[in-house]
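retry 2 of 3: previous attempt timed out while embedding alpha-D-glucopyranose. Reduced batch size to 1 and resubmitted. Inputs unchanged:
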Amino acid sequence: MPEKLKVLHAASEVVPFIATGGMGQVTGALSGALAEHDKSLDVRVVAPFYAKFRNKYQTQTKFLGSAEVNLAWRVQSCGVYELSHDDVTYYFVDNEYYFGREDAYGYADDGERFAFFCKAVFAVIEVSGFVPDVIHAHDWQTALIPIYLKTEFVEKYSNIKTVFTIHNIEYQGQMPDFIMGDVFGMSDDDSDIIWYNDCINLMKGAIVCADKVTTVSPSYADEIQVAGGYGLEPIIREHSHKLSGIINGIDTKVYNPATDSLLGQHTYTADNLSGKASSKAKLQGFFDLEQAPNKMLICVVSRLVSHKGIDLITYMFDDMMKLGVQFLLLGTGEHAYELFFEEKALQNPGDVAVSIAFNPEIAGMIYAGADVLLMPSRSEPCGLAQMIASRYGTVPIVRRTGGLADTIRDCRHGDGNGFVFDDYTVKALMDTIKAALDLYTNRPDDWKNLIKATMNVDFSWNLSALKYGDLYRELAK
Ligand code: GLC
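retry 2 succeeded.
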């Protein structure tokens, strides 16, 4: 049997262990899909052993050993643990000082914490003996891996190739200059690599150093070269020969209304939607909304930040409610938005409910029970909620940007699986909600057909996992 190509994903989050957003869902589902569909690969994942899940999983892991990791003048110890889950081997990097904290991110020394993680990945390679052909690094937290491979480890690991995936270019890992020598241990000669617009920019360094750069949809790959790159456009253009956009999938085994245990006895399929109707009643009950089967229930499941289009929603909120709909929101984020929606729930009892939380179980209930998902993002690298909602027959209303443009087609122009609008304006969003409401209210059979069309789109990882596999093979040639 030919030897398998060894691929190591490095990520600061990965489901089922830890996810604070879409990136963790994708690293988990992608590595699982690769292991399942591409038997020519040996796929493993390395992630920090955060206290939050260490307590839960430690007994299932095997301690492989420990090593010392240098960050400039610091010497830190790194414990390496191994765990097998669904055909994927996971390595966890243990260090009490950096990862024994309440949350994954949000600390003043995050730059140092993830520099440690990146350095520790090389310790994991030593301790485990798994020397990958390709390291696939995700977002700025792992940007130093391709950078170290072109600097400190250029000779030692000259055979390892890298893929760097941009999940969201808005978060670039910008830091003050002293960190370069004092924490990363890099010499001034290498400052060209990670210096950009008067500060350190880790994402820029990864784009420069990685052998391939990908992002999570073809449209976003175009957008970040022209205006959506948050200042990195010239760098992306310079390296566009190694850039490609590969659309994310979702785990269609986990997200399956026919088998989802979160739905209890209300499971359903595209051909028999009665479970969806009862899921709506259950959802309305759970959130103290009026039990109104024929009121269109609009939901938002999102981080509450302006580029997700939350500002647009606040500007049109009262007008939208005048249409006689119900509204449900789940998410956390900027405090002003949290307060805004909490106040709206108080002002509209029975019609508006809000849960300020990141809660996959409640999200599951909402995807199943709502009629419409609103995702009017200003920018959206890929977006997962529109695909998950679709799978549950909740019709997405999205703005044409990034992965939303690549996954949703407007049903007003022929075959569609949702509603799509172009302008980032209150008017465009309101007109689209009105069009959806008109179809929902006045043409119930057409609405049902739309739900079916929505549910029947294949958002699985099958195709995209193959594309990543091809990319790895091309690199390893
Ligand atoms: C980020 C992006 C989101 C994408 C996810 C997974 O969270 O904002 O659009 O779906 O990463 O790639």
